[in-house]
From TrEMBL:
One of its GO terms (biological process) is lipid catabolic process. One of its GO terms (molecular function) is hydrolase activity. InterPro entries: Acyl_Trfase/lysoPLipase, NTE, PNPLA_dom. A motif (GXSXG) lies at residues 36-40. A motif (GXGXXG) lies at residues 9-14. This is NTE family protein. Keywords: Hydrolase, Lipid degradation, Lipid metabolism. It comes from Allofournierella massiliensis. It holds the Pfam family Patatin. A motif (DGA/G) lies at residues 167-169. Residues 5-180 form the PNPLA domain. The active site is at residues 38, 167.
Length: 387
């Protein structure tokens, strides 16, 4: 079966795709076709020519000034930034050209056993141009890669043979359809929440979608520290997409189901039932605190973990590591604010009845209530005091 890897556009968020490719390689999932838009096609060109390590090292070292000449000042405000950018016809990405010159091996890309395709758009008529490596004229590979990544109006259009081309995201930011037309029969599509048009998946094409629950940083801010985090998230999310990691937002080692059930799911359900029985209105506070995270879960077991994961997120637990159940429990308990737990402690007492003051506090601060509820559940399961 012919496999396709589709890499969406998203500027500096493209570092996430490096972690995805590393995980796919470890899982033995190797693409026969790679298609990409914008930063996705720049990454894809390196992946197709066996330059994953080059891509990783590049992302871990470049900053915004190595991509954009005179990058925007974050202090100037969004409106001033766009006014200055439009006045200058777009940001100058000459430094990015130097990076592409350094990493692009056009001959290797043309002869790679992995077929390569990209999307750009004609600025004059806004018509998309979908091209495979073989359809791009000799010597113009760099031009079309940069054309696909010309995020107009932030970046200047790319001129090729008298025509101006702009970012492929104006037509198809995640070109699954192009991969299918190139013969892909199953696809891994990597979404980095970029700006552009994302088309509906072609019917009857098996697609594994890899995307992050977490914010991957500003599109035009290239930062090695953010890139390192994004690579770790992309790696974990790929294992999650293939069923090798548990959790929705956090990464929990496979095989930890029993520890999760005994250490959190069961105690939480029992405490929740008792607390809600005395204070039914708290049901709304818990749902408000979850913020819809449970709706992202594909299974009932995953949904049962949503309160723990949301509480970890609110407490500031780092998302990059792969945790055991016990490690995640301990990390949360170390980070949760003890004052929050004390504030809601009367709700969790064994003989607690209606607690009007605490219920009102929960309605006003549902996230804090959820953290206290999760902390009480975990401590109760460990034989400690629930509050």
């Amino acid at each position: 079966m012919k496999r396709g890897l589709v890499l969406a556009g998203g500027g500096a968020r493209g570092s996430y795709q490096v972690g995805v490719y590393q995980a796919l390689t470890e899982l033995g999932w190797r693409p026969d076709v790679i298609t990409g838009t914008s930063v996705g096609c720049l990454n894809g060109a390196m992946f197709a020519t066996g330059q994953w390590a080059t891509a990783r090292d590049m992302w871990l070292t470049i900053d915004t000034r190595q991509v954009i000449t005179d990058p925007p000042d974050p202090e100037q405000g969004v409106l001033n930034f766009w006014q200055e950018t439009m006045r200058g016809g777009g940001l100058d990405v000459t430094p990015l050209e130097s990076i592409v010159d350094r990493v692009l091996d056009e001959d290797a890309l043309r002869t790679s056993p992995i077929e390569f395709g990209l999307v750009t758009v004609n600025k004059r008529n806004l018509r998309p141009l979908e091209l495979t490596a073989q359809q791009i004229p000799q010597g113009q590979m760099k031009d079309y890669l940069l054309a696909s990544a010309a995020c107009f109006p932030a970046f200047r259009p790319r001129a090729i043979e008298g025509e101006q081309f702009i970012d492929g995201g104006y037509a198809d930011n995640m070109p699954v359809g192009l991969a299918r037309r190139m013969g892909a029969e199953e696809v891994v599509a990597v979404d980095v929440d970029g700006i552009g048009i994302t088309r509906r998946m072609p019917p009857q094409l098996p697609v594994i979608l890899v995307r992050s629950h977490w914010e991957l940083g500003a599109i035009l801010t290239f930062d090695p520290q953010q890139a390192r985090q994004n690579i770790a998230l992309g790696y974990n999310d790929t294992y999650r997409a293939f069923g090798r990691i548990l959790g929705i937002a956090y990464s929990i080692q496979a095989g930890q189901e029993r520890a999760l059930t005994e250490g959190f799911v069961r105690p939480y359900a029992e405490l929740l039932r008792r607390v809600m029985g005395a204070n039914p209105a708290l049901t709304f506070a818990e749902q408000a605190a979850l913020g819809g995270l449970e709706k992202l879960a594909a299974t009932a077991a995953a949904r049962a973990l949503a309160p723990l994961e949301r509480a970890c997120e609110l407490a500031g637990v780092a998302p990059e590591p792969v945790y055991t159940a016990g490690e995640l429990f301990e990390e949360f308990l170390q980070r949760v604010d003890p004052q929050i737990c004390l504030r809601f402690a009367p709700l969790f007492e064994a003989d607690a009845g209606l607690c009007i003051r605490e219920a009102a506090q929960a309605a006003a601060a549902p996230g804090e209530f959820l953290q206290a509820l999760v902390a009480a559940s975990l401590r109760g399961s460990q034989g400690g005091e629930e509050p």
